[in-house]
Structure formats: structure tokens, C-alpha cells
Amino acid sequence: MKLPAFFIAHGSPLLVLEDNDYTRFLQRLGSDLGKPQGIVIFSAHWDSPEQLITVDAQHETQHDFYGFPEEMYQLSYPAPGDPALSRRISELFKDSNLPHQPVLGRGLDHGAWVILRTMFPQADIPVVALSVDSLRSPEEQYNIGRMLAPLREEGVLLIGSGGLVHNLRLLKQKDQPEQWALDFDGWIAERLAAWDLPSLYAYEKQAPHVREAVPTYGKEHFIPLFYVMGAADEGRAAQLMIQAYQYGTLSLNCWMFD
């Protein structure tokens, strides 16, 4: 069965401890998806000028955050890797002449394990993590995703983990969203529904309130969107599954691409 690809906002690391509409949605989504053959995840928290691929047989859990409750540092997500799937990805990259490198022993960062632990708590699905490159053009990021499209026919779930509105310097002490955040997400939603690639590629010049939503120091959270869109280039169908906000400006949304 051909699986859709997803962009999933991972919010704050505390998401993994929370019980709210968004976490309950992720739990239902994981249940509905069943048990894929494997998961390939682009995480905003692995930004590299080289395309990197984990090749581990077993992942450790990164606690790549600070100042959180002690309970957070006791959590783990001991998902297996899949060296065979890693090799398959390498073959697809080679076919498209994309330079890439294997990485052993990195573990899963919180951009990956926070949402995977919520969706698939048994940690029994093999995971391969891929880096993103915030210095590439959106078109290049999209084309890397296109290279991985065959995996969807092979029972592999592709996820981009990040955040469309993700500016930690503008967080508020309320969950009611700021109007500028709504305006930005609304602009993105309209372009995704139309699969308007020229406008999306030019989001930095065209989207309203783009500097607040995607600060220059935080582009890595937005760009996983392009990678997973590319994996759905053949169908070009986008569906917003849920939209929520925390702290006024932290967008929690899930987009499905098919």
C-alpha cells in the first residue's frame, strides 16, 4: 500500500508529556497508519550542508534540550534502525547523483523521537533519520524528497518534522494565536492546497509576516515541508489534518501529502 507523506510540527519537547487535542490527534494518526515497514524522518534538529543518513541497527535517544523537568531526561525511544533501508536510500540518492554520507551513532534527536513516541509508543518500527540543509534552495529540498518517492510504494512512511511558525523569541504566555501567525499559516495553507510551487519557493519574499514566522536563524524548522512535499510530487494533493497553537506563536499542524 502506498503511504502518504506527512509534515508534522513537533512543538516543544514537552509535547511528549502533554495530553491535548494535538497529542491525541497524533496518537490516532499513528493508530490509523498501523505499522509501516519503516519510517524515514527529516528532522529540523539535524541541519547539515551534507546530506546525512543514519545507518544504525539500534538508536539511542538524544536529550538535546536544557532547562526542562527531570522527567524529560529519563524518557527514551529505543527504536531500531534499518541498515537495509539506509542502503536503499543511498541507492536512490546515488541514482540522482546526490552526494551523501552515512552516520553511525548519532541517535534520534527530539525533533524525531518526540513525535514518534507519541504516534508509535512501542518503538518497534525501524527508523532512519535524514538531515536537512537550510542553506539549500526550496527547489533543491523538494527535489531531494522526490528522490525518495519510491519508498512510499514500499511501505515506508516519510515524515518531515519541524514547525511552520516557530520563533521561540516571540512566544507568549497564552495559547490564543497571534493574528500574524494565523495570517502566515493561512497563506501557506492556500498555496499548499493549490500546490503553488512558485509561490512556496518564494515564501521568503511573498508570505506575510515571514520574518516573524520563519526567522533567519530558524529556517530549519520550516524546510522539512519541502522535503516531504517532494516525495508526493506525483499526486500533488495536500490536506491539513489539524491546526493548533501553543504560546501564541508556536504552530502545531499536520499536513498530509499524497
Automatic annotation (TrEMBL):
Domain Extradiol ring-cleavage dioxygenase class III enzyme subunit B: start-end pairs: 5-248
Gene3D superfamilies in alphabetical order: LigB-like
Required co-factor?
A: Zn(2+)
Keywords noted in UniProt? Dioxygenase, Metal-binding, Oxidoreductase, Zinc
Q: Which InterPro entries match?
A: Extradiol_dOase_DODA, Xdiol_dOase_suB
Q: Which family does it belong to?
A: Belongs to the DODA-type extradiol aromatic ring-opening dioxygenase family.
Question: What name goes with this protein?
Answer: 4,5-DOPA dioxygenase extradiol
Q: Which organism is it from?
A: Paenibacillus silagei
